[in-house]
Design goal:
Blueprint: E1 5-9, H1 16-28, E2 37-41, H2 44-54, E3 61-64, H3 81-86, E4 91-94, H4 97-103, H5 107-119, E5 123-128, H6 132-136, H7 140-152, H8 157-160, E6 164-167, H9 181-198, H10 201-206, E7 208-212, H11 220-224, E8 231-234, H12 241-254
Parallel strand pairs: 1-2, 1-8, 2-3, 3-4, 4-5, 5-6, 6-7, 7-8
The structure holds 2-phosphoglycolic acid (PGA).
The site of 2-phosphoglycolic acid (PGA) has 13 residues, from strand 8.
């Protein structure tokens, strides 16, 4: 019922020309199963070159890694939702833990960014996740609920139908220490219960929840095997074509295609 999504978060990696070369390699892998969605999030400066290298008919979608909540104006260094739309982006990653930790993004700011994405028909991938200290103190559920409450406040179920959530425990990002599938499943269930309680059964059942944090071709199947996990948000392992394509292949196989 929920189409699996494999998303690659490039972070601050690859120049525009390196990105175009990556896109040309990815095309060779013929990842065009309608059973899954594949999305890549290059840095802003590389989105256009990736789009041209992929070509107009590519099934691979593009995402921004962030956006500003206003459409235009005196916000030096920022990029808006209409700018991303105009470059062919269908998705935008919001609330990534690096944005939260390094750039001070709070839930109220993320809420405004979500509103901009909804306004312009960009599908947000909202990242939530607890730190190691929060997990060890037994606060995971309340941290995740707090992040969801703070950033999703005031949106209608119709708006949230565009939303994908990525559970990314901060301690698993870029550390090589992925969560166990059981840990991920348990938080995914918490997120679904929250959506059910605050909105509706339809929203809880229809929202894709991805796992992210040290996903690799070696461990991806263990996450994708669960019906609770609707795909992956991949950082480090999305940078080499081969490993990103392998993860997408595994997701495709899980669907039986
Ligand atoms: P990682 O990053 O796969 O390198 O852990 C995931 C992310 O930050 O989205």
């Amino acid at each position: 019922m929920r189409t699996p999504l494999i998303a690659g978060n490039w972070k601050m990696n690859k120049t525009a020309s390196e990105a175009a070369a990556f896109a040309r390699e990815l095309i060779q892998r013929k990842l065009n199963s309608p059973a899954i969605e594949i999305v890549i999030a290059p840095p802003f400066t590389a989105i256009d070159s990736v789009r041209h290298a992929l070509g107009a008919k590519s099934p691979i979608g593009l995402a921004g890694q962030n956006l500003h909540w206003e459409d235009r104006g005196a916000y030096t260094g920022e990029v808006s939702a209409p700018m991303l739309k105009d470059l062919g982006c269908r998705y935008v990653i919001l609330g990534h833990s690096e944005r939260r930790a390094l750039f001070g993004e709070r839930d109220d700011v993320i809420q405004k960014k979500l509103a901009a994405a909804f306004r312009h028909g960009l599908k947000p991938i909202l990242c939530v996740g607890e730190s190691l200290g929060e997990r060890e103190a037994g606060h995971t559920t309340e941290i995740i609920a707090g992040q969801l409450k703070g950033s999703l406040a005031g949106f209608t179920a119709a708006q949230l139908a565009m939303l994908t959530i990525a559970y990314e425990p901060v301690w698993a990002i870029g550390t090589g220490k992925a969560a166990s599938p059981e840990q991920a499943i348990s938080v995914h269930q918490t997120i679904r219960q929250f959506l059910l309680r605050e909105w509706s059964t339809a929203l809880a059942q229809g929202t894709r929840i991805l796992y992210g944090g040290s996903v690799t071709p070696q461990n991806a199947s263990s996450f994708l095997a669960s019906d609770e996990i609707d795909g992956a948000l991949v950082g480090g392992a999305c940078l080499p074509t081969e490993s990103f394509a392998s993860i997408a292949d595994l997701a495709q196989k899980r669907t039986g295609h």
